[in-house]
Amino acid sequence: MIEVVIDDRCGGCGSCVDVCPSDVLARGPNGKAIIARQADCQTCYLCELYCPEDALFVWPETDRVVGLTVEQALATGDVGGFRRDSGWDEHAATHTNQHWRMGAIFERARLMAIADADAAQGGAKTARDENGRIS
Ligand code: SF4
Ligand code: SF4
Questions:
Q1: Roughly how many angstroms between the first and final C-alpha of the chain, as a whole number?
Q2: Is residue 77 pLDDT above 70, yes or no?
């Protein structure tokens, strides 16, 4: 579950808002990221992966909010660890990026979501926009 946004680090780039598949994150009044719908978090870590400032911290608990403070998150010593261990950006030289493996998994999830939506409509095909979202 997403636990905190470290406001001092956030540069307001909006990447985490764009990549979050559950619209958990939003831009606050000052343009920085805020947690808007925490309960919808899927614990997918994409926001951590795409944050160039290591300003987000996701905890592996999937069913509940732990309620970590920024200080507690920093004290884990693992803020930015997922991006580092995934070999993104400046970590490419020291860690192997194997996120290409996720392509087939995301495609499977997309097809399952389409099938679920169709089933919910009694088998009728669901209208979708260009991004595959139900419209
Ligand atoms: S962990 Fe995934 S679902 Fe949760 S806020 Fe980050 S991108 Fe969104
Ligand atoms: S990706 Fe990081 S720096 Fe960019 S808006 Fe989100 S928290 Fe802020």
A1: 27
A2: yes
**45 Cα to the center of ligand 1, angstroms:** 6
Answer whether 54's CB lies under 8 Å from 11's CB.
Answer: no
Q: What's the predicted TM-score (pTM) here?
A: 0.82
The class that CATH gives domain 2-79 is: alpha beta
Confidence of residue 47 (pLDDT cuts 50, 70, 90): very high
C-alpha distances in Å from residue 64, one per residue of 1, 33, 44, 75, 78: 7, 21, 14, 20, 20
For ligand 2, is residue 13 a contact (CB within 6 Å)?
A: yes
Distance, in Å, from the CA atom of 22 to the CA atom of 12, rounded to the nearest integer, reads: 19
**Distance from the CA of 46 to the center of ligand 2, in angstroms?**
12
- Judged by its nearest atom, the ligand closest to the C-alpha of residue 47 is 1
Structure tokens at 88: 């993104």
Q: Whose CA is closest to atom 8 on ligand 2?
A: 10
- Extents of the domains making up the chain: 2-79
**Distance, CA 37 to ligand 1 centroid (Å)?**
10
37-46, 63-72, 120-129: lowest mean pLDDT where?
120-129
